[in-house]
Amino acid sequence: MAETAAAIVAAHKDGRIAPGDTVAVAYERLRAHGDPAIFITLREEADAVAEARALTDATLPLYGVPLVVKDNIDVAGMPTTAACPAFAHTAHHDATAVARLRAAGCIVIGKTNLDQFATGLNGTRSPYGVPRNAIKVELIPGGSSSGSAVAVAAGIVPLSLGTDTAGSGRIPAGLNNIVGLKPSLGLVSTYGVVPACRTLDCVSVFSLTIEDAWTALTVIAGPDDKDPYSRRRELGELCAMPAHIRLGVPRTGYRQFFGDRDFEAAYDAALARFAKLGCVIGEIDIEPFYETARLLYEGPWVAERAIAAKPILDSDPDALHPVTRKIITGGLKPTAMDAFTAFYRLEELRRVAEKTFGQLDALALPTAPTAYTVAQLLSDPIQLNSRLGTYTNFVNLLDLCGLAVPAAFTENGIPFGITLLAPGGQDALLASIGQAFHADTRLPLGALKGSRPD
Predict the structure, then answer these.
(1) Which domains does the chain have, with CATH numbers?
(2) Which residues have CB under 8 Å from 116's CB, separation 6+?
(3) Is 195 a residue whose pLDDT tops 90?
(4) Which of these, 210, 113, 105, 206, lies nearest to 155 by C-alpha position?
(5) Best CA proximity match to 320, nearest among 42, 85, 68, 106
(6) Which residues contact 129 (CB under 8 A, 6 or more apart)?
């Protein structure tokens, strides 16, 4: 099986391999990888292979591409658990994003593990285990879309769906050396997704290359009457990076790495790479963005997280992961006055962000400020998780689109990633910048040694 979705489609179209055989290889790789914590539910292999063999339209953009789906997104006939067995129910319909990918030729092979109710950025908050980081097994896989990211990085599938509210579609990408595309709010329907914060949730895409992520986005993007938060937003086209892109970065002294000098050095090197590619680097005041990030968990938006889990919290609170339960219980405390006070402040911060973006094309930030081992994270699960969201938690509150791109490996072999951010509607611009940057790194794809981006 070829590694990328684009290569798989090409191989299917010219007859080098049949879609059914490609799907069978995905199952072989899954078994060979030997990590049962990646998946919560696997589809019967014979059913998936049969669906692939029944494909007849070779013009489909994702013809016969194996796909995995985060288990807070519905796949018809399969359980949706949100990593909480007491919440599990069988979905009767595909989520809109899943339905569109299947119509484009994708074959779903399983539902992947996540931080319970998508609450966490680390990948350790699940009764189904902790997926092994595909690059360094002692590291956290990142979350909440842990299984979806690891499945792609490990080469089991070339494409997966996650979700992203506070960074769940970007942190796991950065920690597994893959691409994580977080679309503009409303660009992709969230119908069929278990809500985390419904006003902020996005369906995200993980892939080995930006080309593959972009192809998937073109398939799943578009308004949906079943999702009241769906928007009509122009997608644009993936093209060569425009000249003289203006990239904003935090002022020196305001960059947070929590003592991780390797990540700090990798960030400086990434900015030098952008400059070599012709980008103009300018420093900005990052403090308003940090303040916005704090609103997500210290403000009333945590109350949204309590909505989906409230029935379980009322009927069987012990069914919730202890850390998840603590966070969700905190969502019961804010008052309506607290909410409106935060809404007012957020609008002020949005105006500040608009002024900042009036002087540049995008931000270029570390995807994560540092990386933790599973043991470190479990010893201090809330504070260290909060640190992981330093450069991610503000994004959806400010209606930004984002693209996490592999940037480097530290001397200790830990992957470091860059995230590009821009105002909603600029998804194509970020993909164009990110594609040029990723190609220039010449990094391997995920954990697949020797592979290179296009």
Answers:
(1) 5-220 (3.90.1300.10), 246-436 (3.90.1300.10)
(2) 82, 83, 84, 125, 126, 127, 320, 321, 324
(3) yes
(4) 206
(5) 85
(6) 36, 37, 113
Q: Do the beta carbons of residue 353 and residue 345 sit within 8 Å?
A: no
Going from the C-alpha of 410 to that of each of 122, 123, 133, 177, 447, the distances in angstroms are: 20, 21, 16, 12, 15
Q: Which residues of 50-65 are buried (b: 16+ CB within 10 A; e: fewer)?
A: ebbbebeeeebbbbbb
Check if 449 is active-site. no
Q: Which pLDDT does position 155 carry in this prediction?
A: 97
Active site residue 70: yes
> Residue 402: which residues within 8 A CB-CB, separation 6 or more?
164, 169, 170, 180, 181, 182, 392, 395, 419, 420, 421, 430
CA 315 → CA 87, 276, 330, 364, distances in Å? 11, 58, 17, 44
CA distances from 261 to 147, 174, 370 (A): 28, 17, 9
- Inter-CA distances, 237 with 72, 201, 216, 400, 432, Å: 29, 24, 13, 18, 9
Q: Please identify which of the residues 146, 148, 168, 432 carries the catalytic annotation.
A: 168
Tokens 């480097």 belong to residue: 408
Judge residue 243's burial from the number of C-beta atoms within 10 Å of its C-beta, 0-12 exposed, 13-18 middle, 19 or more buried.
exposed
* Alpha carbons 195 and 188: distance in angstroms, whole number: 14
Report the relative pairing of strands 107-112 and 66-70 from DSSP bridges. parallel
Locate 258 and state its tokens. Answer: 């929590």
- Catalytic annotation, pick one of 144, 145, 146, 184: 144
The encoded tokens of residue 227 equal 């999702």
Q: At what angle do helices 19-33 and 45-53 cross, to 10 degrees?
A: 150
Q: pLDDT per residue over 330-388, tens digit each?
A: 888 889 999 999 999 999 999 999 999 999 999 999 999 999 999 999 999 999 999 99
Mean pLDDT calculated for residue range 6-23: 97
Closest CA to 61 of 103, 28, 93: 103
Q: How far is CA 427 from CA 180, 189, 286, in A?
A: 12, 16, 22
